Each structure stands twice: as C-alpha cells, then as structure tokens.
Amino acid sequence: xxxxxxxxxxxxxxxxxxxxxxxxxxxxxxxxxxxxxxxxxxxxxxxxxxxxxxxxxxxxxxxxxxxxxxxxxxxxxxxxxxxxxxxxxxxxxxxxxxxxxxxxxxxxxxxxxxxxxxxxxxxxxxxxxxxxxxxxxxxxxxxxxxxxxxxxxxxxxxxxxxxxxxxxxxxxxxxxxxxxxxxxxxxxxxxxxxxxxxxxxxxxxxxxxxxxxxxxxxxxxxxxxxxxxxxxxxxxxxxxxxxxxxxxxxxxxxxxxxxxxxxxxxxxxxxxxxxxxxxxxxxxxxxxxxxxxxxxxxxxxxxxxxxxxxxxxxxxxxxxxxxxxxxxxxxxxxxxxxxxxxxxxxxxxxxxxxxxxxxxxxxxxxxxxxxxxxxxxxxxxxxxxxxxxxxxxxxxxxxxxxxxxxxxxxxxxxxxxxxxxxxxxxxxxxxxxxxxxxxxxxxxxxxxxxxxxxxxxxxxxxxxxxxxxxxxxxxxxxxxxxxxxxxxxxxxxxxxxxxxxxxxxxxxxxxxxxxxxxxxxxxxxxxxxxxxxxxxxxxxxxxxxxxxxxxxxxxxxxxxxxxxxxxxxxxxxxxxxxxxxxxxxxxxxxxxxxxxxxxxxxxxxxxxxxxxxxxxxxxxxxxxxxxxxxxxxxxxxxxxxxxxxxxxxxxxxxxxxxxxxxxxxxxxxxxxxxxxxxxxxxxxxxxxxxxxxxxxxxxxxxxxxxxxxxxxxxxxxxxxxxxxxxxxxxxxxxxxxxxxxxxxxxxxxxxxxxxxxxxxxxxxxxxxxxxxxxxxxxxxxxxxxxxxxxxxxxxxxxxxxxxxxxxxxxxxxxxxxxxxxxxxxxxxxxxxxxxxxxxxxx
Length: 842
Ligand code: AMP
Ligand code: MG
Description:
By secondary structure, this protein is an alpha/beta fold.
C-alpha cells in the first residue's frame, strides 16, 4: 500500500553503495524541477490546504515518560530492540483489520495509538509515518530515495472502543495517502512552528510498516536479528517498525539512548503486545479498559511495591503512649522553650490538670477544642490536655487573620478554645475561652485520668486551603498517628537519647513529628521561637547550642539555611535532616549533601493521609525520589480512568491504608470526591492526592508535580482558587486569576491578574486580602488586564498571561528617572530586584 522505508532503505543503500549503484532513471535536478513544477498545480495547493487544516491549532507535544531529562539539543544516539508478535495473534489482528475494511498497517497503528494514549493520557496524538514518493512514475524502484513523511493525527479516547479507533485511524490514513505529495518540510515551514531544538518538529515518534510478502526474515540478504547495536542512530525519540512476515509480525523499536533505558523500551514493547492481544480477543473493548500490564507486572506494582504490612499498637491513643513514657522516664527533660523546661512528669501532671478541667466542660470523644497559643510549652500542655480529656484538638495559628480564625471556629462548631492573655483579642468567639496562662486552669488533681477514648476517635482536625474559597478541616484519628509513629521510627533512628527541634507552626500536621512523636518515645524537644523560625542565623545558633540531632525542614527553609555560609555550621552537627512538604529540588539536595554528614530524608505526604506517607533515605542516593510507602500504607498510580499505570508512566498518586483521614469535617460531598473506593482492596478507601508521580523500576516513587491548581509556596499549601475567590469578593474586582510564578532566583511567588473597571491601588487590595487570608497567600504582584486570555481548548492561557506585565498595580504613578543619578539608581534597583518591573523614581 505504498508505505515502506526505514530498515529497508538503510539496507538497500548499504548494498548499493559505490559501484553497485543501479543506474538511476532520473537525475536529482530533474526530480527537483518536477517537484517545483508540482508545487504550482491545483492538486498540490489542495493538498497543502488539507495539511494546514489538519495541523491547525495547538500542536500537542507527545508527553512520553523518559528515563533521563531531555537534552536541550536533540541527541541522535540510539539503540534498538525487537520482538515478534506471534503468528496466532498476528493472524487475529489481520482478521480484525480485514473485517473492518482496514489494512494491517492501520490495525498496528491503531494499537500504537492506544499505547501512546495509555502512556500519556493525551487525546490528540501525532505520529509520523514514512512514505515512498511513488507518485512520480519513474521512481518505482528507487525505494526510499525520495521519501516523504506523513502525519497521522488521531484522537484516541478512553471511552472509545478499539474498533472505533481503528475506523478513525483508517480514515486518517486514507486521507493522508490522498495528500501524500505535499512535502513535510514545507508543512513545517508553512506552519511557522517555533523550533524547539530538543525535539523533532511536529512529531516525536515514527511508525513504519513493511509488507514483505516473503517467506523468511531475510531482507536483501541481511538477517534482521543480526543487526548490531553499536553506533546506532535514532532519528526520532522512538520509532516503531513493523514487518509482516510469514511467521508473525516482526517489531523493532528504535529509541534514543539519551532519553530511554533499554528496559523501559522492552517494557513498552511488552505493553504493545499486550494491547494487541487484548484488542484481538475483544475488538470492541474500550481503550480505558484494555489491560496493558502483564499479570506479573500488575502483581508487582499493586502488591510487591506495597508490601508494607506491619504490626503496631493500633488500639492505643497518643496520650496513652505519652503516659507510658512519662512513667518510664519521669525525670527526663521533655520540652524546652527559651528558659522554660518541663520534665516528662511535670508535663504529664500539668496536662492532666487541664484535662480534668476540660472534661468538666463536657469535652469527650470527637469534641473539638481549639488551641490558639504563642510558641511556648503551652502548645504541648494544651494538646495533651485536650487529648487526655478525650477530645480532638484544632490548632489555630494566631498569626492568621481574625476572619479566618473566626471561620475555622464556626465551621468546626468549636465550643471551647484554649488561648493565652496576649491573644485574647484575636478570638471573636462566643464559646468558652480557657486561658492557659491562668494558674486556676491547673487547679485540679494531677493524676492520669480514667480512659474514655478509643484509637478510632479523632485526635485532631487541621484546616488546609480549599479551592472553592474556604479552608476545609481534615479529621485524623489516633490510630493513623500511631501507625505513622511506627512508620517513622522504623525508617529513622528516633531514639530516646536524641534531641529534636520543633520548628513547624502548630497548625500544620508535621508539627506532630517534632513534638508528640518524640514525646512518645522519651526524646527531648526544643521549641524554636518565632525569631528562630524566621532568622536562619538564630536558628543555626539554637541548633548548635542545644546539640540538636534531628531537624525537619521544608526545602524552602533549607534553602535559606544554606544560602549563607555563616548559617551552615549547624548542618555539620546534625544527625538526621528530614526534608519535606514540597518538591525537593535536585540541585538543593546536592548542595546540602556536600555540606553535611547527616542522613538526609525526603518526606512526602498530604495532610489527608497523616503527616508523611512515603519516605526516602537519600543519603547514599544520587537522585531525589519520594521513596516508598510507610508501614500499612499503599500507593497507587493511576491514569484519569483509574487504571494502574505501568512502571515509568506518570499518573495521579493515590494513597490508601491506615493513615487515611476520616474525611473532611462537615463536607460529605468533597470527602466522597477525594476519598474514593480502593479498587485493589475490597471495602477500603483511597485518597486522590492530586499529585503526579510515577513508579521507578525499583519501587521508589518519583514526584512530578500537580494536576490541579494547588501550589506550595515556601512550603505552604495553597489552593489558587481560594485566593481567586477571595479577590472576586472584593467589590472592585470583576474577575481574577492567580498564578504561581518563579523569579530569577527560581523562588516561587504569587501573581494576581485582575479585571476591574476602577482604580485599584496596591495598599487597599493587600489590606482587603489580609483580612481573610494568611500572609503567605497574598500575591506579590497585582496586574490589571482587560480580559483573561484563553487557549484553543478554552482554558486559561498561562503563557500569554505571564507575558502581560504592563499594568502592574503599584499604588504609585510611574515617574521615569529625570537625571543621570536617578537613571543610575533605577539601574541598580533593576539589578537587585529579581522581578521584571518597570522601576520609576517612586
Ligand atoms: P500538606 O497537606 O500541606 O502536607 O501538602 C501536601 C502536598 O505537598 C502534597 O500533596 C504534595 O503536593 C506536596 N508535598 C509534600 N511533600 C512533598 C515532597 N517531599 N515532595 C514533593 N511534594 C511534596
Ligand atoms: Mg504533609
């Protein structure tokens, strides 16, 4: 059917090199003249029109998962591997094609499209296919000399059946043949595509088919299996060549070695074969239903990578663990904050006294008690007091705006709030306020209380940013935390003689790793004050002076620590450095590694699955991954149809197991949406994290980003939608989009784009937002725009938006420099400020 080339071309040109060259029937210049002539014909114009129409709009870039980072310039080093589709399956495929009036080429291409769809999730896929320029009658047997490339643009979908896809692929192919004279190079030219030097223009993968009609696998005297792999070239990222032989279909995969490992391509070949096997058994199977994984791979991913079952004291509660520890080591120091200290005994007594008071106020299982205190030992007394009373603690950061605090207290229907003198004006609260600075709070008996809680009661509710405008409360049970403690102490050497830093704000779950976890095993906790939280040099001193062994930080904070030589001395003293909460950049990891002897861990986990769900000891590794699930925790990586993704392919990370939250407080719908049925363990749930990740062959997980608008700025979890909603509630703002951007120093910041008919100045809009949102959610830049740019698919066009920098709201009028000195000053500021702004003298 007129398609040929690839291997055939190479072999023939090898055979006919030098004196063996057959006499050509036309000379190249004649061919060119003929081509040039051709360009002016009606027929050629019609073909041009066809291809321009076919390739209009956004040309998707095939998002194939690679093993290595794509080099900035295309590298052509390649290798190939091959396998055979057994005759039985090949015959079935031919039959499926025939009964749908399609060719084998179309059947194989349809299966290839199904494969690419399942690998990338993309519904618009371009594949190149070589075609011999046979329209010129004299070129009949100079195979491959004047070759053209046709684009096969197809749109596979999960709901589509294989037969439907096949019929679409057939139509596409027939149309393409009809328009085969139009030169690919001209198309690239005409489309005026921006050249990306790291990729081939228009398509990244080639699909070639040869119909040999020959009895053996000899091609022009050379055995295919004899191909040497040395000095191979790969013209494209990946080329699939299929040759129809009597004893099956020979498949060769040629790939770029700077992108792929051999094992990855071999797996891909197996998946291709699996697809063909499945669709020939059941041609009306939907693409999303096709089992692309082999049985053994599936077992490995679902069970092997998740073999985390382990025993832990699942009946216990957090405060019981602490009471047992206080019994064992009553005189050890439990917490230190500035010049205040408490031993295990003292801490236990004080919290018992508080707990009795709380019980008297009706606190018991699943009763929420708010705690809003300064960074002090009262944080810990308060939390244990609430837990011992049988209640659930709701931590509130006093730095948050009054409106937000009020919202959380109301939304959670909190009746009792623990706070301190200095913060009482922050609480607009109708319920009961208990002051932890007041001696009377601790007037009752200090013995342990009778047990009324179960490990399935709620330990805490923590609010996190919500995309629809308000934060949402995540409910965590004791059991999940007990499991978490087991998981952490298995992975990391938390032993009773060690000292740990409590650096995190009380309102984040990772605060527990720094406080309740070490206190349940007899460690000493040093609480950093606000100054030490903010100033790297003060933090450095604190760590050194207290001989702290274990520190947990976000990558952003770690970055601050190592930016300045002077603040790094603490790194030398540390034994364990736990990094987590946002992506750990490879470069930062390498820097830190060269400056510390400490063990370095990457910690990953959403609030909804209890603090951290996967851990990786990176100490002896070169590449950052988030590791493997902790005890009694399962990770699944699924595509948008909830099918398990093969090793190496990206998908949404879902987490199941004992760490799962009970759900969102008073948000049944949202809970149902995010905590879905676990398809792999009957009766269990799993949480859709919204994170994009993939399995590496060794069972470690690589984190790749987000599928939605949740971002992390300086380690803070933020739904951009929450900021947008808040902005749109302002009477002057009609529409708003908030994006996270990166400055020249690669630091993320927020930028708001707003549509408004009125004058808005920076001060007023910031002031407005600060009433409702914490400081870290306030955009740095506000830019006025006329309309929100959309792309072809009707989504917000980020790229265009980012270029709209003109109308930045500064609150002052722009006045350009008026003399040499001012010009010089402007220049200096432009150098210093990392962002692209028009700087005036004000
Ligand atoms: P949070 O609920 O505040 O713990 O935020 C959870 C989210 O933070 C996750 O869903 C990830 O998007 C991100 N995250 C947490 N830890 C890591 C990590 N080690 N690497 C990359 N992203 C992380
Ligand atoms: Mg977390």
